[in-house]
Every structure is written in structure tokens, then in C-alpha cells.
Amino acid sequence: MARDTAIGIDLGTTNSCVGVWHYDRVDIITNEQGNRTTPSIVTFTDGEILVGDGANNQILSNLRNTVFDVKKFMGRRFSDPLIQRDKLNWPFTIVLGCNGKPEIQVTYRGECKSHPPQQISAMVLFKMKEIAQAFLNFEVKKAVITVPVCFNDSQRQATMDAAHLAGLNVLQLLNEPNAAAIAYGLDTKIKSSLAGTNVLVFDVGGGTFDVSIINIKRGSFHVRAVEGDTNLGGQDFDKRLLDHFIKEFERKNKKDLSTNAKAIRRLRIACEKAKRSLSSALETIVEVDSLHEGSDFYSKISRAKFEDLNNDLFDRCINGVRLCLADAGMRENEIDNVVMVGHSAWIPKLQQLMEDLFGREKFCRSINQEEAVAYGAAVQAAVLTSQCSDVVLQDVTPLSLGVEVEGGIMSVIIPKNTPIPVTKVQTFTTFRELL
Predict the structure, then answer these.
(1) Which residues span the domain enclosing 152?
(2) Do 11 and 121 share a structural domain?
(3) What average pLDDT does the segment 399-413 reach?
């Protein structure tokens, strides 16, 4: 295998995954624990920095120095409404850093230190790099890294900065649903008609939601339209459960749980397990011993109640699908296949809503939902290093591009979903108020 091999990394909010093109196929690489995905978690202890499963195991014993969900901070300002809304929900401390950016404050080796989000993400990326190097037995310097569709320029640049800190040369930042489409296209080996096959990728990750419509024709992947929401994901479903059970605990025990960060984290973990259980069961139990001030917590929740708590979030997902169809100028019956990826795509209500929209027979269930994005990134990495020539991807601009004009309004020059590469010219003149 060539020493300039590039890897594909799915840098996720909750978990990350790494793959490589190896002997004419993709290998999703297991970590030292034998797991194919690695928690995107970093823990600072008195003597070392732990990343992945080791950090996840210490999350309750070292809560204030354990950092997770860092993808949500990437490229944002401290004043961003999402950070201001959620900073009290994280057990670690968020402070105002340089240039108005957020920084994460932890205690490491007895010293209080602040780290920008890029440094924390770099630690996760370096861990994925180490996992790949242990498998390949040589140093890896190149990577294709996936990002949500609607990451803006600042968020994408922050991801590039994190990769640079991890010692990686980024060949491409690949949109996550496009990576999943590549995985689907190679897995099914589509032999399509002259018009190609229209595939809709529905990706619900831990912290983001993306949709892409892609036409696949003989190894050529032509993106028709994309849509996404960087403030919607599986953790939002967990949060609805968490809020519901916090109120129930306070009602039953007459105790305020909101000030106990460790109890909140333990209950959040139980909520995530309950969400997963409700994908296969109609009812599940949430039980946490000695949750707060010696009081145990025990409750049952039904799938119907879970769906009722999250109905508006499910509607936002489906509205995103409809917007993507409208941007592509397509109707539901023009979609040939639907691919659902991300662990929250297992939620029965989401599957039902998508089946109501497109029909059950169009759904592809053959690819691994949690590994598909890393698989596609590994394929694209092989294409860019000339190890694979079966794939050609034509992307679109995920956001409209333009300039600010009088009144603080953006004048759009390149509309969203314009095929790349594109060149457009428009003339503007300066404005000066006459005295």
C-alpha cells in the first residue's frame, strides 16, 4: 500500500469513525477497544489527556474536565444564541476567548487552562489518525474529513484548523450526506438508466441534520440540492426526554435537580439509552439509583409519549426534506431510493414519516447507518490520491454567496445549490450619503 494513502474521517458530534481504501475495498478501522466508532470525547486528568472510550469511561468521575459536543462550538462566536442557550447545560465551563470566540476551561495537571474548540477537535482527529496508523503500520498525513451540509465558511475553516493541529493535510471537506451517497452507490453498484438514479440521503447525526438529493449514474454523483440544520440532531431528542424527566423528578421528590451537574449527566445518559430502546420497544424503563440527594428515580415512558415530546422536531426534519425537494425542482415520486443514516434515523416515527412521503419500497437498508459517512469519505480519499477512479462527485454550494449592500442586506451572487465549479460576475458601486 502506498505511503501517501489518505484516510476518510467522519468527525461526529457524538462519535467519530475512520476508514481507509485498502486492497480495492474500504475498511472501517476498529479502535484499541475493538469498536468501529469512537466517542468524540476528551478528558483532562491530573496526569494525562484521554480521548475516546477512555474519556467516556471517566465522564461521571471527572465531569467538569470532560469535554464533549465540541463540534457545536466550531466556528461560532461566544455570543452565538446556541452557545448562550446551551452553555448552562454542559458540565464544563465555557468562557469568552480571543476575538469573541468561545473557549473551554478545564483543569489539567493542577492548572486552569482554556482551549479553543479547534484544539479539542484536533485531539479527536489525532486519535482517529492514530487508530488508522496502528492499522496501516505507517504514518498518515492526508485525510478527507466530513462536515454537515450547512456548515458555513467559519465552521469549515475551524475544521481545517483542527486537522492542521492534528498533523493532517485535508484533501477535501466532504458534505456528510454526499459521503453516505457514495457509500450507497458503491454498495448497490447501481446499473441505472440513461437518466440515472435519484437518491435522497436523510442524515440525522448527534447534533446536526442534513438532506441531499443526488443523481447517481455509472459512478458519477451529481448533487441536485442540499438542505440542513446545524442546530437539530439526536441530542435534541434526548434533551426533550431529559427535560420531561427532570420535571417528573422534581414533582415526585420536591427537589431541584437542575443544579446537580452529575445527576443531570447520569439522567441524560439514561435518556439516550431509553431513546435507543424505544426504537425496538413500545415502552421502556428509565431508572437511576440515588440520582439526587439520596433519592432514586424510576419511571416508564412509551414510544407514543416520546413521539409526542418530539413532534415539532420531527416536523422540522420532514420540512427540511420538502425544502430540499423544492430546491431540486423534484416531486416525491421522482426519488428512486431513500438512504437514512445516523443513529437517530432508526427512530420509528421518523421512518414512518419518510415512508409516508416516499413509500416503503424505496428505502435502502443494506448499508451501515453509523459507518456510511466514513465509508464514503474513505472512497473519496482514494479517488483524490488516485487509488480509485470509479467515482466522480459534482457538488453544489450549500449556502448562498454574496456581498453586503446598503442597509445590511446581502445581495446574492451565487444562489444556494449552484453546481460547483461556478464563476459569476456582478458589478457593485460604493454608496455615500450626500450632505
Answers:
(1) 6-173
(2) yes
(3) 85
CA 233, 235, 239, 241 torsion: positive or negative?
A: positive
Residue 125 has pLDDT above 90, yes or no: yes
Residues 375/238, Cβ–Cβ less than 8 Å: no
111: amino acid identity, one letter: E
**Which range among 53-57, 256-260, 334-338 shows the weakest confidence by mean pLDDT?**
256-260
Instruction: Evaluate whether 405 touches 429 at the Cβ level (below 8 Å).
Output: no
Residue 287 lies in a domain: yes
155 shares a domain with 36 = yes
Q: Residue 269 belongs to what H/E stretch?
A: helix 261-277
Cell 458601486 found at: 429
Q: How many C-beta atoms surround the C-beta of residue 95 within 10 A?
A: 11
The answer for residues whose C-beta is within 8 angstroms of residue 94's C-beta and 6 or more apart is 73, 78, 83, 87, 102, 103, 104, 105
Report residue 36 CA to chain centroid gap: 16
Using the structure block, give the residue that is written with the C-alpha cell 427512530: 347
Among 255, 285, 309, identify where a domain stops. 309
The pLDDT-based confidence of 3 (bands split at 50, 70, 90) is low
Phi, psi angles (nearest 5°) of residue 245: -75, -30
Angstrom distance (rounded) from CA 350 to CA 338: 13
Q: Name the strand (E) or helix (H) holding 160.
A: helix 153-165
Query: What distances in angstroms separate CA 208 from CA 70, 177, 195, 202, 205, one per listed residue?
Result: 12, 11, 31, 11, 5
Grid coordinates representing 253? 421528590
Provide the whole-model pTM. Answer: 0.92
CB neighbour class for 33 (10 Å; exposed up to 12, middle 13-18, buried from 19):
exposed
- Give just the sign of the alpha carbon dihedral 253, 254, 257, 262: negative
pLDDT tens column, 152-188? 999 999 999 999 999 999 999 999 999 999 998 876 6
Residue 423, exposed/middle/buried by CB under 10 A (0-12, 13-18, 19+)? Answer: exposed
Q: Which residues are catalytic?
A: 10, 71, 176, 203
CA dihedral 116, 264, 271, 297 (to 10 degrees): 170
Assign residue 36 the CATH number of its domain. Answer: 3.30.420.40
Residue 20 · residue 7 · CB < 8 Å: yes
Q: Is position 97 within any domain?
A: yes
pLDDT of residue 369: 87
Residue 433 has what pLDDT? 61
Are 150 and 62 members of one domain? yes
